[in-house]
Here is the input.
Amino acid sequence: MLNYITVLLPSLGKLKVRDIKLIHLQPIIDNMIKEKYSRQYISKTKAVLFSILDYAEMNEVIAKNPAKYITIKTPVAEKKEKDSFTPEEIAVIEEECLKHPWGDTIYIMLNTGLRSGELLALSKNDINIKDNTITVCHSLSRSGGKGVLSEPKNTASFGTIPVSLKVIQLLATRILAAPPDCDFLFVNMQGQIINPRTFGRIYENIMNKIIASADKNIRYLPPHCCRHTFATRLYRSGADSKTIQLLMRHADFTTSANIYIHKQDDLLRAAIARL
Here is the structure.
């Protein structure tokens, strides 16, 4: 109880119980939220206030308990800009990742914008070596500790997209290495489709090795940032909004513009210089 009293005393210590109003109580809770106290601690503080003032109400010291009307507002989460690798980091990662088993997955994600689940769900039939295209029609997610195939996150995520010759070569190598009785390209030693959590560990391990061996500073970014990086590369290359939308397979360009495309500082400065 002493801890709660310490929190309450600075605001309420000089007030008589009958003078305590909601305007005195709510700022206490709001400040605790701002100071990032735990949800449990805030709730218990409110409960202490309620208990004290409920006792005062029962004994007719106050007409009604103002603590009944305290609200614990959920703070609005700050919108985090999704990060992407810099051109310098990309050059190192693309060169180094292919030196490691499964490093081709990083190269492919950086150059296609595929979500990791979409990449892991690719089958032999999804790869058109003649036309240099891949078709996204499934995604792999984790359920019950296993990898489970499902449809992509939205209708726009379905589709066939062109890819570079290097990406097709990497996928063709996967096709040749895949067990004859397995349709999927990214499988474990038993020929079973890989668990997304296992892939996450593989990705992290490869990136840590690249970071440790690189002469330059390379940041660790999670797999989905490869997708953000691809969108940023498209933007930097001068691709128009519709092209980016289609290659990223978004329902509308607003998603691409607001979430994935990073108008980096050098681009902004170049734009100002052109004025």
User: Anything to note?
Assistant: The mean pLDDT is 85. The longest strand covers residues 139-143. DSSP finds twelve helices and five strands in the chain. The CA atoms of residues 27 and 259 lie 34 Å apart.
